[in-house]
């Protein structure tokens, strides 16, 4: 009898180890939207947590490489990353489409090898003015990554002074391009006012397509991003709008400003309570509150504590605790 109990305990430990040793994609499989929630192949909200790269055309560009992706997966324990491809101004996709696409592909391909999820982010504030370019880009991405469970398409980062009709009309032009090739991977649609007016989107959501989610952004220490903004998201969630926090920072909306620990922890608790997946802004060594890296941090990863900013140290600790 004792031997049977011992064997059972050993099997239980071995099973637990094998599950924990699996990559996030191996554990969760293909994502989908069910009953207003982003869920995994088992119908459970996976609550992915990770890091957003910075604009691919400025200071953060040098970190768009496989070494950084591997480090984020292995050391930070990120289960999702966001490849933020700058569309404009100078040096972005509109001017250098092949160079920008190559940066994104290098990050996405390594995320697939590392077994983590990756948002392909059309990082543009004026996507409605660049419909043909967006169509061409997402056509290429959907053809290349069709059916690969790691990949999520984010088709418009932060619409600015744009109404929901404009955002929705744009989405209804891009979604069919992706769905021609990739029938079921998650597509993330933006919402007005820098991805804050999700309650407006919830009142008139996109219909006729499955596995559509909506981005929600906040900056945890910003005085304008507190209870009233959470109430907007709470309303959208109550209306069964599937949300994913594709961008948030510990500072203020400018990317700089205060890092208020109490406000940041309140926002993190809210994401945990609502089982929302997120990526934190951002991998760059720019001198800003939300930058995770100190100046001249190694461009291939391998960062020590001295290479991380207060935001970087905090987010690494959060990811290693919550994603363990």
What does this protein structure show overall?
This protein is of the alpha/beta class. The protein has one domain: TIM Barrel (Alpha-Beta Barrel), CATH 3.20.20. The protein contains eleven helices and ten strands. α3 runs parallel beside α4 and α5 packs parallel to α6. The two termini are 34 Å apart.
Main beta-sheet strand count, sense and barrel state: 8 strands, parallel, barrel
Number of strands: 10
Considering DSSP H and I runs of 4 or more, what fraction of the residues is helical? 40-55%
Q: Major sheet: order of its strands?
A: 3-4-5-6-7-8-9-10
Binned strand content:
15-25%
Q: How are helices and strands ordered from N to C?
A: HHEEEHEHEHEHEHHEHEHEH
Q: Using the CA coordinates, give the radius of gyration.
A: 19 Å
Q: What CATH architecture label applies?
A: Alpha-Beta Barrel
- CATH fold field value: TIM Barrel
Task: Flag low-confidence runs.
Answer: 1-20
Look at the helices and sheets and give the structural class. Answer: alpha/beta
